[in-house]
């Protein structure tokens, strides 16, 4: 049997998988994943498919997580929200705002599901998922047990977590609990939000502004296939940053608390003149160089060839190596770009 994955990945890549199971309850999710793991059969647990590049047909079972449910509880100071993995992230952000639970507004319109959010510690406009993460419940495949990790145990970093490192391919996230302070503090230090007055701004205003910026800067995957940022913004030492800044005075970079600098990869790619460059139907987006797009019939292999070209060009100019942000999938699992 062969099932098209085109509707299950936001890049709209035309690859197939051997079988696809959609699960709507946690018990079903646990059951199917345990069975596949025990039989040593390739499985791919899929949320929104917004961070995947299929380079070949997937020779295994795709488990599409569509579990639903959001529960709200509170104590004197905090709201606690427990969300099933298959809930859509943006719907969650909206549901919270409707209930006057503020905090998630900077992360409006990030594509994907709640269960996928911790894996790469999603973030935008000055706020990352780990700011509000209280607990993650996951199925640990090698033991078959449900486990709960607190924030610290998840070892979050910039687009990183334990689920991409030690627990890569070993954890199926089933449920996420967020903890949001009732006393809301707006985060408006990111460039386009700086015009707000912190004493009067509302979460809804930030939400509307973020939606507006994202819609104007990032291509809509329903119109033009893409996975958001294709590369992480690279971190470099102060020394490396100072050297680069001497040669490239317009370089865009953000100093981190540990003294390192995060370079704007979009700026680096733009500087070497790659906007609009294509290999087949895989192209660097015309307006936002950090995003690769599918102009129609791109293959995952073309996307990877293009990514390699971008990495090489940026390296030749700046001696900085870009790392892809999405997971690149081969026929039985994740692969390196090659
Ligand atoms: N820039 C250019 N040319 C470009 C693109 C960007 O010069 O073609 C410059 C911009 O002018 C700006 C700087 O690069 O000065 C940074 O651009 P922007 O503020 O648009 O953000 P980004 O670094 O490109 C990151 C995240 C996005 C997130 C935004 C807003 C990563 C890899 N990407 O993008 O996340 O929405 O900041 O916080 O960290 C995603 O992860 O998929 C994603 C979209």
- Largest beta sheet: what is the strand line-up? 6-7-12-10-11
> In which range does the helix fraction lie?
10-25%
Small molecules bound: uridine-diphosphate-2(N-acetylglucosaminyl) butyric acid
H/E element string? EEHEEEEEHEEEEEHEEHEEHEEEHEE
Please summarize the sheet with the most strands: 5 strands, antiparallel
Shape designation: globular
Distance between the termini: 28 Å
Low-confidence parts lasting 5 or more residues at pLDDT below 50?
A: none
Number of strands: 21
Strand content: 25-35%
Average of pLDDT: 97
**Backbone structural class:** alpha+beta
Structural description of this entry:
The protein is an alpha+beta fold. Helix content is 22%, strand content 28%. The chain has helices spanning 26-38, 89-98, 203-217, 238-247, 265-271, 300-318; strands at residues 3-4, 16-23, 43-46, 52-54, 58-65, 70-74, 78-84, 123-124, 127-128, 133-140, 145-150, 171-181, 225-229, 235-236, 253-255, 261-263, 278-279, 282-284, 291-294, 327-329, 334-335. The strands form six sheets. A five-stranded antiparallel beta sheet has the order 6-7-12-10-11. The protein has a four-stranded mixed beta sheet with strand order 1-2-5-3, covered by helices on one side. Bound molecules: uridine-diphosphate-2(N-acetylglucosaminyl) butyric acid. Uridine-diphosphate-2(N-acetylglucosaminyl) butyric acid (EPU) is lined by residues 124-125, 217-218, 228-229, 232-233, 252, 264, 266-267, 270, 288-290, 325.
Question: What would a concise description of this structure say?
Answer:
This protein has 338 residues and is α+β, with helices and mostly antiparallel strands. It is built from six helices and 21 strands. The structure holds uridine-diphosphate-2(N-acetylglucosaminyl) butyric acid.
């Amino acid at each position: 049997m062969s099932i098209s994955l085109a509707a299950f990945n936001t890049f709209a890549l035309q690859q197939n998988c051997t079988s696809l199971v959609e699960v709507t309850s946690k018990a079903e999710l646990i059951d199917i994943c345990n069975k596949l793991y025990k039989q040593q059969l390739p499985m791919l647990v899929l949320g929104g498919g917004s961070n995947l590049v299929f380079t070949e047909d997937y020779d295994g079972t795709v488990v599409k997580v569509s579990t639903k449910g959001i529960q709200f509880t509170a104590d004197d100071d905090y709201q606690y929200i427990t969300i099933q993995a298959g809930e859509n992230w943006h719907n969650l952000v909206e549901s919270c705002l409707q209930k006057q639970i503020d905090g998630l507004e900077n992360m409006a319109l990030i594509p994907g599901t709640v269960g996928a959010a911790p894996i790469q510690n999603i973030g935008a406009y000055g706020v990352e998922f780990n700011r509000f993460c209280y607990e993650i419940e996951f199925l640990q495949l090698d033991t078959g047990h449900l486990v709960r990790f607190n924030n610290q145990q998840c070892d979050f970093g910039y687009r990183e977590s334990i689920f991409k490192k030690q627990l890569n391919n070993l954890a199926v996230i089933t449920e996420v609990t967020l903890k949001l302070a009732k006393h809301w503090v707006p985060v408006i230090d990111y460039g386009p939000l700086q015009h707000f007055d912190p004493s009067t701004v509302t979460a809804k205003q930030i939400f509307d502004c973020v939606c507006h910026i994202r819609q104007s800067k990032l291509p809509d995957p329903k119109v033009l296939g893409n996975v958001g940022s294709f590369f992480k913004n690279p971190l470099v030492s102060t020394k490396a940053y100072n050297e680069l800044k001497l040669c490239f005075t317009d370089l865009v970079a953000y100093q981190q608390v540990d003294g390192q600098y995060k370079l704007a990869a979009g700026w680096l790619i733009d500087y070497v003149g790659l906007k609009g460059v294509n290999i087949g139907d895989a192209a660097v987006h015309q307006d936002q160089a950090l995003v690769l797009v599918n102009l129609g019939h791109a293959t995952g292999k073309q996307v990877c060839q293009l990514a390699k070209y971008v990495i090489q060009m940026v390296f030749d100019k700046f001696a900085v190596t870009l790392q892809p942000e999405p997971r690149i999938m081969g026929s039985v699992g994740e692969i390196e770009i090659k």
